[in-house]
Amino acid sequence: MVKSARWTDAGTLAVQEAEASAPGQGEVQVAIGSVGICGSDLHFYRGQFSPRAGVTPGHELAGTVTAVGGGVRHVKEGDLVGVEPLLRCGMCMFCASGDYHVCDDRGLVGERVDGGMSELAVIPANTAYRAPSGVDAELGALAEPLACSVHGFHKADLRGHETVFIVGAGSIGLTAILAARANGAHVIVLARHPHQQAAALRLGADEVVGDDEAGRERMKELAREQAVDVSVETVGGRGDTLRTAQLVLRPKGRLVVLGVFTEPEVTINALHLALREIEIVGSMTYAASEGRADYQVALDVMADYAEAARTLVTHRYGLDQVNDAFATALDKSTKSIKVHLNPN
Prior knowledge:
The protein has 344 residues and is an alpha/beta fold. 30% of the residues lie in helices and 26% in strands. It has eleven helices and 17 strands. The strands form four sheets. Strands 3, 4, 5, 8, 9, 16 and 17 form a seven-stranded mixed sheet that branches.
Protein backbone atom coordinates (compact mmCIF):
# COMPACT_ATOMS: atom_id res chain seq x y z
CA MET A 1 0.00 0.00 0.00
CA VAL A 2 1.13 3.52 -0.80
CA LYS A 3 0.36 6.67 1.19
CA SER A 4 -0.57 9.83 -0.72
CA ALA A 5 -1.95 13.24 0.18
CA ARG A 6 -5.06 13.96 -1.89
CA TRP A 7 -7.42 16.89 -2.30
CA THR A 8 -10.85 16.32 -0.81
CA ASP A 9 -14.20 17.62 -2.03
CA ALA A 10 -13.92 20.30 0.68
CA GLY A 11 -10.63 21.59 -0.74
CA THR A 12 -8.55 20.20 2.14
CA LEU A 13 -5.82 17.56 2.08
CA ALA A 14 -6.13 14.05 3.47
CA VAL A 15 -3.52 11.29 3.56
CA GLN A 16 -4.96 8.11 2.06
CA GLU A 17 -3.67 4.64 1.22
CA ALA A 18 -4.08 2.79 -2.08
CA GLU A 19 -2.44 0.03 -4.08
CA ALA A 20 0.75 1.03 -5.87
CA SER A 21 0.40 1.64 -9.61
CA ALA A 22 2.89 0.03 -11.97
CA PRO A 23 4.35 2.21 -14.73
CA GLY A 24 2.88 1.77 -18.18
CA GLN A 25 4.44 2.29 -21.59
CA GLY A 26 6.64 5.39 -21.51
CA GLU A 27 6.28 5.87 -17.75
CA VAL A 28 8.48 5.52 -14.69
CA GLN A 29 7.67 4.90 -11.05
CA VAL A 30 9.56 7.11 -8.57
CA ALA A 31 9.97 6.81 -4.80
CA ILE A 32 9.66 10.45 -3.78
CA GLY A 33 12.52 11.71 -1.64
CA SER A 34 11.51 15.37 -1.43
CA VAL A 35 8.68 17.55 -2.74
CA GLY A 36 8.26 21.29 -2.32
CA ILE A 37 5.14 23.33 -1.61
CA CYS A 38 4.79 25.95 -4.34
CA GLY A 39 2.93 29.25 -4.26
CA SER A 40 0.41 27.82 -6.71
CA ASP A 41 -0.24 24.95 -4.27
CA LEU A 42 -1.06 27.58 -1.65
CA HIS A 43 -3.53 29.26 -4.03
CA PHE A 44 -5.43 25.94 -4.13
CA TYR A 45 -5.15 25.50 -0.35
CA ARG A 46 -6.55 29.00 0.27
CA GLY A 47 -9.44 28.34 -2.09
CA GLN A 48 -8.37 30.91 -4.70
CA PHE A 49 -8.22 28.11 -7.28
CA SER A 50 -10.33 24.95 -7.25
CA PRO A 51 -8.29 21.72 -6.92
CA ARG A 52 -9.39 18.46 -8.48
CA ALA A 53 -10.73 16.24 -5.73
CA GLY A 54 -8.78 12.99 -5.45
CA VAL A 55 -5.63 14.33 -7.13
CA THR A 56 -2.28 14.27 -5.31
CA PRO A 57 -0.55 17.69 -5.50
CA GLY A 58 3.17 18.37 -5.76
CA HIS A 59 5.02 19.44 -8.91
CA GLU A 60 8.41 20.24 -7.33
CA LEU A 61 9.61 16.68 -6.89
CA ALA A 62 12.58 14.36 -7.05
CA GLY A 63 13.32 10.81 -6.00
CA THR A 64 14.64 7.40 -6.98
CA VAL A 65 13.37 5.37 -9.93
CA THR A 66 11.85 2.13 -8.65
CA ALA A 67 10.41 0.73 -11.90
CA VAL A 68 10.37 1.63 -15.60
CA GLY A 69 7.72 0.95 -18.21
CA GLY A 70 8.17 -0.20 -21.77
CA GLY A 71 10.26 1.89 -24.12
CA VAL A 72 12.10 3.76 -21.36
CA ARG A 73 15.87 3.76 -21.86
CA HIS A 74 17.27 7.08 -20.62
CA VAL A 75 16.75 6.22 -16.92
CA LYS A 76 16.81 2.94 -15.00
CA GLU A 77 15.91 1.56 -11.59
CA GLY A 78 18.05 3.13 -8.89
CA ASP A 79 18.62 6.42 -10.71
CA LEU A 80 18.00 9.62 -8.77
CA VAL A 81 15.85 11.88 -10.94
CA GLY A 82 14.40 15.33 -10.85
CA VAL A 83 11.03 15.79 -12.51
CA GLU A 84 10.19 18.51 -15.04
CA PRO A 85 6.44 18.32 -14.42
CA LEU A 86 5.03 19.65 -17.71
CA LEU A 87 2.53 17.47 -19.55
CA ARG A 88 2.07 18.00 -23.29
CA CYS A 89 0.71 16.39 -26.43
CA GLY A 90 4.13 15.80 -28.02
CA MET A 91 2.72 16.24 -31.51
CA CYS A 92 1.94 19.93 -32.14
CA MET A 93 4.33 22.45 -33.70
CA PHE A 94 5.20 23.87 -30.28
CA CYS A 95 6.14 20.47 -28.86
CA ALA A 96 8.16 19.71 -31.99
CA SER A 97 10.17 22.94 -31.54
CA GLY A 98 10.79 22.36 -27.82
CA ASP A 99 8.27 25.02 -26.79
CA TYR A 100 6.01 22.46 -25.14
CA HIS A 101 5.26 24.91 -22.33
CA VAL A 102 2.77 26.66 -24.66
CA CYS A 103 1.21 23.46 -26.04
CA ASP A 104 -2.60 23.77 -26.13
CA ASP A 105 -2.80 20.45 -24.29
CA ARG A 106 -0.31 21.39 -21.60
CA GLY A 107 -0.88 20.46 -17.99
CA LEU A 108 1.01 19.89 -14.80
CA VAL A 109 1.94 16.85 -12.78
CA GLY A 110 0.29 17.47 -9.42
CA GLU A 111 -2.67 19.33 -10.93
CA ARG A 112 -4.01 17.36 -13.89
CA VAL A 113 -2.50 14.03 -12.75
CA ASP A 114 -1.12 12.79 -9.43
CA GLY A 115 2.04 14.50 -8.26
CA GLY A 116 4.79 14.10 -5.72
CA MET A 117 3.08 14.35 -2.31
CA SER A 118 3.10 10.58 -2.17
CA GLU A 119 5.45 7.76 -1.29
CA LEU A 120 5.40 6.65 -4.94
CA ALA A 121 4.52 8.54 -8.12
CA VAL A 122 4.09 7.31 -11.67
CA ILE A 123 5.12 9.99 -14.16
CA PRO A 124 5.73 10.28 -17.91
CA ALA A 125 9.30 9.16 -18.56
CA ASN A 126 10.08 12.24 -20.64
CA THR A 127 9.70 14.38 -17.51
CA ALA A 128 12.41 12.47 -15.57
CA TYR A 129 15.97 13.85 -15.72
CA ARG A 130 18.88 11.99 -14.15
CA ALA A 131 20.36 14.19 -11.43
CA PRO A 132 24.02 15.18 -11.80
CA SER A 133 26.61 14.27 -9.19
CA GLY A 134 26.17 16.24 -5.99
CA VAL A 135 22.42 16.75 -6.42
CA ASP A 136 20.21 14.78 -4.01
CA ALA A 137 16.40 14.64 -3.92
CA GLU A 138 16.05 17.87 -1.95
CA LEU A 139 18.16 19.84 -4.41
CA GLY A 140 16.46 18.07 -7.32
CA ALA A 141 13.08 19.28 -6.10
CA LEU A 142 14.43 22.85 -5.96
CA ALA A 143 15.40 22.64 -9.64
CA GLU A 144 11.78 23.19 -10.70
CA PRO A 145 11.41 26.78 -9.40
CA LEU A 146 14.98 27.50 -10.49
CA ALA A 147 14.16 26.38 -14.05
CA CYS A 148 11.55 29.17 -14.27
CA SER A 149 14.29 31.79 -13.87
CA VAL A 150 16.66 29.92 -16.17
CA HIS A 151 13.98 30.11 -18.86
CA GLY A 152 13.20 33.78 -18.21
CA PHE A 153 16.85 34.84 -18.41
CA HIS A 154 17.29 32.78 -21.58
CA LYS A 155 14.35 34.61 -23.18
CA ALA A 156 15.75 37.99 -22.08
CA ASP A 157 19.21 37.07 -23.42
CA LEU A 158 20.91 37.93 -20.12
CA ARG A 159 24.63 38.57 -20.58
CA GLY A 160 27.41 38.09 -18.07
CA HIS A 161 28.40 41.74 -17.77
CA GLU A 162 24.84 42.94 -17.03
CA THR A 163 23.08 43.92 -13.81
CA VAL A 164 19.85 42.19 -12.79
CA PHE A 165 17.31 43.69 -10.40
CA ILE A 166 15.04 41.04 -8.83
CA VAL A 167 11.76 42.21 -7.33
CA GLY A 168 10.68 39.78 -4.63
CA ALA A 169 12.50 37.25 -2.47
CA GLY A 170 10.17 34.28 -2.28
CA SER A 171 11.36 30.97 -3.69
CA ILE A 172 11.22 32.19 -7.32
CA GLY A 173 13.05 35.42 -6.56
CA LEU A 174 15.69 33.67 -4.48
CA THR A 175 16.33 30.92 -7.02
CA ALA A 176 16.57 33.66 -9.65
CA ILE A 177 19.71 34.82 -7.82
CA LEU A 178 21.35 31.49 -8.61
CA ALA A 179 20.23 31.61 -12.24
CA ALA A 180 21.61 35.14 -12.61
CA ARG A 181 24.89 34.22 -10.92
CA ALA A 182 25.25 31.24 -13.24
CA ASN A 183 25.07 33.73 -16.12
CA GLY A 184 27.79 35.85 -14.53
CA ALA A 185 25.48 38.80 -13.84
CA HIS A 186 25.62 41.36 -11.02
CA VAL A 187 22.55 40.80 -8.80
CA ILE A 188 20.49 43.29 -6.78
CA VAL A 189 17.40 42.06 -4.89
CA LEU A 190 14.39 43.92 -3.52
CA ALA A 191 13.31 41.93 -0.43
CA ARG A 192 10.58 42.93 2.03
CA HIS A 193 11.26 40.76 5.09
CA PRO A 194 14.53 40.58 7.08
CA HIS A 195 14.72 36.76 6.79
CA GLN A 196 14.35 37.08 3.00
CA GLN A 197 17.07 39.73 2.91
CA ALA A 198 19.39 37.42 4.83
CA ALA A 199 18.53 34.53 2.50
CA ALA A 200 19.31 36.65 -0.57
CA LEU A 201 22.75 37.46 0.80
CA ARG A 202 23.41 33.79 1.61
CA LEU A 203 22.57 32.93 -2.00
CA GLY A 204 25.11 35.42 -3.29
CA ALA A 205 23.21 38.61 -4.08
CA ASP A 206 25.64 41.51 -4.52
CA GLU A 207 23.20 43.97 -2.96
CA VAL A 208 19.88 43.73 -1.13
CA VAL A 209 17.40 46.61 -1.08
CA GLY A 210 14.66 46.84 1.54
CA ASP A 211 11.02 47.69 0.89
CA ASP A 212 11.31 50.97 2.82
CA GLU A 213 12.14 54.62 2.25
CA ALA A 214 15.87 53.95 1.97
CA GLY A 215 15.15 51.21 -0.53
CA ARG A 216 12.95 53.47 -2.62
CA GLU A 217 15.67 56.11 -2.70
CA ARG A 218 18.19 53.47 -3.79
CA MET A 219 15.91 52.40 -6.65
CA LYS A 220 15.61 56.01 -7.83
CA GLU A 221 19.41 56.24 -7.72
CA LEU A 222 19.77 53.05 -9.79
CA ALA A 223 17.35 54.47 -12.35
CA ARG A 224 19.27 57.77 -12.56
CA GLU A 225 22.55 55.90 -12.97
CA GLN A 226 20.99 53.69 -15.68
CA ALA A 227 22.52 50.75 -13.81
CA VAL A 228 19.89 48.02 -14.32
CA ASP A 229 19.86 46.09 -17.59
CA VAL A 230 17.32 43.40 -16.73
CA SER A 231 14.57 43.62 -14.13
CA VAL A 232 12.65 40.54 -12.97
CA GLU A 233 9.19 40.59 -11.36
CA THR A 234 8.73 37.43 -9.28
CA VAL A 235 5.87 38.31 -6.92
CA GLY A 236 2.68 38.36 -8.99
CA GLY A 237 -0.57 38.45 -7.08
CA ARG A 238 -2.33 41.81 -7.22
CA GLY A 239 0.30 44.32 -6.14
CA ASP A 240 2.19 47.11 -7.90
CA THR A 241 5.40 45.11 -8.29
CA LEU A 242 5.43 45.08 -12.11
CA ARG A 243 5.55 48.88 -12.16
CA THR A 244 8.31 48.81 -9.54
CA ALA A 245 10.34 46.45 -11.69
CA GLN A 246 9.76 48.59 -14.78
CA LEU A 247 10.74 51.98 -13.40
CA VAL A 248 14.18 50.92 -12.18
CA LEU A 249 15.32 49.95 -15.71
CA ARG A 250 17.73 51.83 -17.95
CA PRO A 251 16.65 52.85 -21.46
CA LYS A 252 16.25 49.78 -23.68
CA GLY A 253 16.23 47.55 -20.61
CA ARG A 254 14.32 44.26 -20.44
CA LEU A 255 11.54 43.46 -17.98
CA VAL A 256 10.97 39.75 -17.32
CA VAL A 257 7.59 38.76 -15.86
CA LEU A 258 7.92 35.58 -13.77
CA GLY A 259 5.26 36.28 -11.12
CA VAL A 260 1.77 34.83 -11.53
CA PHE A 261 -0.76 37.64 -11.25
CA THR A 262 -4.19 36.79 -9.84
CA GLU A 263 -5.59 40.03 -11.27
CA PRO A 264 -5.79 40.17 -15.09
CA GLU A 265 -5.03 43.91 -15.21
CA VAL A 266 -1.95 45.42 -13.56
CA THR A 267 -0.33 48.85 -13.67
CA ILE A 268 2.54 49.82 -15.93
CA ASN A 269 3.81 53.24 -16.98
CA ALA A 270 3.06 53.24 -20.71
CA LEU A 271 4.85 56.52 -21.43
CA HIS A 272 8.01 55.34 -19.66
CA LEU A 273 7.73 52.09 -21.62
CA ALA A 274 7.62 53.90 -24.97
CA LEU A 275 10.13 56.68 -24.28
CA ARG A 276 12.75 54.27 -22.96
CA GLU A 277 11.90 51.44 -25.35
CA ILE A 278 11.53 48.99 -22.49
CA GLU A 279 11.02 45.41 -23.66
CA ILE A 280 8.57 43.30 -21.65
CA VAL A 281 9.30 39.57 -21.74
CA GLY A 282 6.53 37.22 -20.66
CA SER A 283 7.89 33.97 -19.28
CA MET A 284 6.01 30.88 -18.12
CA THR A 285 7.70 27.83 -16.61
CA TYR A 286 10.43 26.29 -18.81
CA ALA A 287 11.00 24.59 -22.13
CA ALA A 288 13.66 23.14 -24.42
CA SER A 289 13.78 25.88 -27.04
CA GLU A 290 16.62 25.45 -29.53
CA GLY A 291 17.29 22.02 -28.03
CA ARG A 292 18.30 23.45 -24.64
CA ALA A 293 16.29 22.04 -21.72
CA ASP A 294 15.94 24.73 -19.07
CA TYR A 295 15.26 22.06 -16.46
CA GLN A 296 18.54 20.26 -17.20
CA VAL A 297 20.37 23.58 -16.91
CA ALA A 298 18.67 24.12 -13.55
CA LEU A 299 19.87 20.75 -12.28
CA ASP A 300 23.41 21.63 -13.36
CA VAL A 301 23.18 25.01 -11.58
CA MET A 302 22.01 23.17 -8.45
CA ALA A 303 25.15 21.06 -8.60
CA ASP A 304 27.31 24.20 -8.86
CA TYR A 305 25.58 26.04 -5.99
CA ALA A 306 24.47 23.10 -3.84
CA GLU A 307 25.50 24.47 -0.43
CA ALA A 308 23.84 27.85 -0.97
CA ALA A 309 20.75 26.36 -2.62
CA ARG A 310 20.01 24.04 0.31
CA THR A 311 19.55 27.03 2.59
CA LEU A 312 16.29 27.72 0.74
CA VAL A 313 14.64 24.78 2.50
CA THR A 314 13.69 26.13 5.91
CA HIS A 315 11.15 23.48 7.02
CA ARG A 316 10.84 19.74 6.44
CA TYR A 317 7.84 17.52 7.26
CA GLY A 318 6.76 13.92 6.88
CA LEU A 319 3.85 13.09 4.57
CA ASP A 320 1.43 12.59 7.47
CA GLN A 321 2.11 16.22 8.48
CA VAL A 322 1.03 17.63 5.10
CA ASN A 323 -1.53 20.05 6.59
CA ASP A 324 1.00 21.31 9.12
CA ALA A 325 3.43 21.84 6.24
CA PHE A 326 0.90 23.90 4.28
CA ALA A 327 0.04 25.92 7.39
CA THR A 328 3.72 26.71 7.89
CA ALA A 329 4.12 27.76 4.26
CA LEU A 330 1.10 30.07 4.59
CA ASP A 331 2.15 31.68 7.87
CA LYS A 332 4.70 34.45 7.26
CA SER A 333 5.54 34.54 10.97
CA THR A 334 7.25 31.14 10.58
CA LYS A 335 9.85 32.83 8.32
CA SER A 336 9.50 29.95 5.91
CA ILE A 337 11.01 30.17 2.46
CA LYS A 338 10.63 26.72 0.98
CA VAL A 339 8.73 24.01 2.87
CA HIS A 340 9.44 20.43 1.80
CA LEU A 341 7.72 17.12 2.46
CA ASN A 342 9.88 14.00 2.72
CA PRO A 343 7.51 11.11 1.92
CA ASN A 344 10.21 8.44 2.21
